[in-house]
Amino acid sequence: MKCIILIAAPAAGKGTISKYIEDKYNYKHISTGDLLRKEIKNNTEIGKEIKSILDKGSLVGDDIIKEVFGKEFNKTKSNIILDGIPRTLAQAKMLDELDEENDNVEISKVIHIDIDKEIAVERIENRIICENCGSVFNKKLVKDLKCTKCGDNLISRNDDNKETFLDRYDTFLKETKPLLDYYGDKVITIYNNSTLEDIFKNVDELLKGDE
Ligand SMILES: [Zn+2]
User: Would residue 14 show up in a list of annotated catalytic residues for this protein?
Assistant: First the structure.
């Protein structure tokens, strides 16, 4: 099984691009955020622990991430694309350990999605998402506030504002971007300053043969 890691600045289009790879190339999307939410929803022992950490406003530590993510990683039977992990060097090393223990999965590519900061801010301020299917739209480009895929309402997320973005961007530069050096030759950079068609064309070029 192949494993693609996505490393993307906030608002660089990670969601859209991973959805494209998931649908067209049949990769399974594994998001640490989703996994943590699932544990909370199922009210598991670890889910209770996660909830109490998040309720305090703290970040979930790597030991918990390893347990929750490792379970999913080890049982995968298809190609996977990782979203939200690794976020730090410590998590990248943890992922290497899991990868070594698991002959079944190979980290095949690291896709770095880059974007100009100014363009990212502009997008954040105009971003609306579908309440139902999660599709992302630009406020300036839609006629009414309805999803063109499923017809449900489009809303702005609370955390889609400039201050939160700049905060996240700094964290990305400090903690996540150094991973590009860590992965070295495996990294392929795609610039998300142009149209989606161009970006998808780049992705197709990268994943030729994976269909
Ligand atoms: Zn929708």
Answer: yes
